[in-house]
Design goal:
Layout (H helix, E strand, L loop, with lengths): L17 H16 L8 H15 L6 E5 L2 E5 L34 H18 L34 E2 L7 E2 H12 L3 E4 L6 H11 L8 H24 L14 H14 L4 E6 L4 H7 L5 H8 L20 E6 L5 E6 L10 H13 L8 E8 H6 L1 H8 L12 E6 L28 E5 L3 H18 L3 E6 L17 H8 L4 H11 L5 H23 L22 H12 L21
Parallel strand pairs: 6-8, 6-9, 9-10, 10-12, 11-12
Antiparallel strand pairs: 1-2, 3-4, 5-11, 7-8
Helix pairs in contact: 3-4, 6-15, 6-16, 7-13, 9-16
């Protein structure tokens, strides 16, 4: 045995399905092609697998040594890994690894096709459970319903052709590639709970498509919106240290998301968009979406009057609403209204629906010309009754507003509480399933996927006039407000957050890595925006903030649908007291004199 210690020989043999490794490499390279670019070889895959194996079986990393003639087990603090690549020897011989292949399962064509269809349906119903939607930490997820073996299929079937619908026969590998892109990457679509087959088919036809990269102009628009969102928050953090503002940092993708929805509304010729939201990110939305000037906001930080265009509420700046004009890519414009909300919570949800319904009632029946958007927090969406109550009324004739787009800015923490300690449902958006609303769950670190989700949500609302939910999975870089230290209650989460680069930085690296953007283009755009902020800040400090203009299109009309006489009649009726002898209800014997 002692002699064997000096012989460098392999001491273990593992059987691996090489075909599986080949197909996994194809999946990884497809992912790299649509993110940062580049390809991966087999060598790092094998190395990664070995390190993971050592983590699960640490005993593989121990060694034998003798000290003073006594045997000892040596357990090193780290892993020294060396990978040998198969190369030809000088004498022309090679060292080869013999692989045992996974045996094929023989079945008739009809049976195999049925199994493939079951697998396809499983991806549509369960694919969201393995999607990469968490920007904080990548976790390789799996689900037994998505396993080939669970459906009586093998790796050999990947190269066989099957019919799964109206399309021509395709290789199972290609079918699964489309399904992974649709349901298991940075976007997870939940819609199989919808009972209407027309709606399910509509969604399926729009998500089960090969990946198409956005045009360069669209990429620049997305990057520009991210730059505005991040630079605005960074500027406030630098200039107004310690002041509470409930920043959007960590969820900056909400700005290109809203931008895409409002562009769609403007291009579709809608009359206006009405937005309701709580504190988180309100200042950013007011500045970068609703048209409130930077000078106005900086002036409020400097202590200037908080009156907005519609009249001051006397409330703090992150409670206020505004009215403005949004301009789309092609110059299309649409009126934007942000409702004031003097609450940390979703208290304004029902109020917004009333505002929107009142505006729509002035127009033609069924036109739904005002688009309602409600921006939730994840803890509020799961925990506040007003959310479910408002959703339950969404299809009632007296309350319909033609479909609301709900945006859940999912910070994955409510005040100080992680989701596992705050709710029993899997997702904070599960309340939306009670009204059979589709849920588009998307990783906030993939702004291109965020924009695609926004476009799909708007198209669904316009087609079916029903509610739809976008669950934007992101994080909260600071505490509940800028004075809190969140690491006191969630140390592990905030270690991950502190190590993260911003979504703007990640997207820029991806564009440069794919060859879609030069570093000079990015630096020039960032420099121009910083100049704009500095100019607005200087004007606010000098007491000369930018003037606000109230567009006539969004002001209240001089007349309403009800005359003043009718309003007076209703008011008088509430003030009248019934005579003492009158019975309040025919079946009761309680008189007015008994009321308190």
């Amino acid at each position: 045995m002692n002699a064997s210690l000096s012989m460098p020989t392999a001491t273990s043999v593992r059987t691996i399905p090489a075909k599986l490794m080949i197909d996994n490499r194809i999946v990884i390279n497809n992912h790299l092609a649509r993110t940062r670019g580049g390809k991966v070889s087999f060598t790092p895959l094998i190395g990664w697998a070995l390190v993971r194996a050592l983590k699960e079986f640490p005993g593989q990393n121990v060694s034998y040594a003798e000290l003073d003639g006594k045997p000892y087990t040596v357990t090193p603090d780290q892993v020294n890994l060396g990978i040998a690549v198969d190369v030809a020897k000088p004498d022309g011989s090679r060292f080869l690894v013999v692989i045992r292949w996974v045996p094929d399962i023989h079945a008739n064509e009809v049976e195999k096709t049925a199994r493939v269809q079951q697998l396809v349906d499983a991806y549509r119903a369960r694919g969201h459970l393995v999607a990469d939607v968490d920007p904080l930490e990548y976790v390789q997820r799996s689900h037994p319903d998505l396993d080939l073996a669970g459906h009586g299929l093998t790796l050999w079937d990947l190269d066989r052709r099957f019919v799964t619908g109206d399309e021509q026969p395709r290789k199972l590998r290609d079918i699964l590639g489309v399904l992974r892109d649709a349901y298991c990457r940075t976007t997870a679509v939940e819609y199989m709970h919808i009972q209407d087959p027309v709606q399910r088919r509509w969604i399926r036809e729009r998500v089960e498509l090969p990946y198409a990269k956005p045009a360069h102009d669209e990429q620049m628009r997305i990057l520009g919106r991210l730059t505005e969102a991040e630079a605005f928050e960074t500027f406030l953090q630098t200039k107004y240290i310690g002041q509470t503002r409930f920043s959007l940092e960590g969820g900056e993708s909400a700005i290109p998301l809203l931008d895409a929805i409002l562009r769609g509304a403007a291009e579709s010729g809608l009359e206006s968009v009405a937005i309701a939201m709580a504190h988180r990110g309100r200042l950013n939305v007011l500045a970068n979406i609703a048209g409130k000037t930077y000078g106005q906001i900086f002036g409020e930080f400097e202590g200037a009057g908080s009156d907005d265009v519609g009249g001051g509420s006397g409330d703090v700046k992150y409670h206020l609403g505004t009215e403005g004009i949004f301009t789309g890519t092609g110059g299309e414009t649409i009126a934007v209204y942000v409702a004031a909300n003097p609450s940390h919570l979703d208290a304004v949800d029902g109020v917004l629906q009333g505002i929107v319904r009142a505006r729509q009632d002035r127009g033609p029946a069924g036109a739904f010309g005002t688009l309602p958007i409600v921006i939730h927090g994840d803890a509020a969406m799961a925990g506040q009754g007003v959310v479910g109550e408002t959703m339950q009324m969404s299809q009632l004739p007296g309350y319909r507003t033609g479909g609301t787009i709900h945006i859940n800015i999912n910070n994955q923490v409510g005040f100080t509480t992680l989701p596992g300690a705050a709710r029993s449902s899997v997702y904070s958006t599960d309340v939306a399933k009670t009204i059979q609303a589709p849920v588009l769950r998307v990783n906030g670190d993939d702004p291109e996927a965020v924009v695609r989700a926004a476009q799909l949500a708007f198209a669904y609302r316009q087609t079916f006039h029903r509610d739809v939910v976008i669950d934007l999975i992101c994080y909260r870089r600071r505490g509940h407000n800028e004075a809190d230290d969140p690491s006191m209650t969630q140390p592990r989460m905030y270690r991950l957050i502190e190590a993260k680069r911003s979504v703007r930085s990640l997207y820029t690296e991806a564009l440069v890595g794919r060859g879609d953007l030069t570093a000079d283009e990015y630096e020039q755009a960032n420099k121009e925006f910083q100049t704009r902020l500095e100019r607005a800040f200087a004007e606010a400090r000098a007491g000369e903030p930018e003037a606000a203009t109230a567009p006539e299109a969004v002001l209240e009309p001089e007349t309403t649908g009800v005359s003043g006489d009718v309003i007076a009649l209703v008011g008088d009726a509430f003030g009248d007291q019934p005579p003492d002898s009158r019975s309040i209800h025919g079946s009761g014997n309680c008189s007015a004199s008994g009321w308190r």
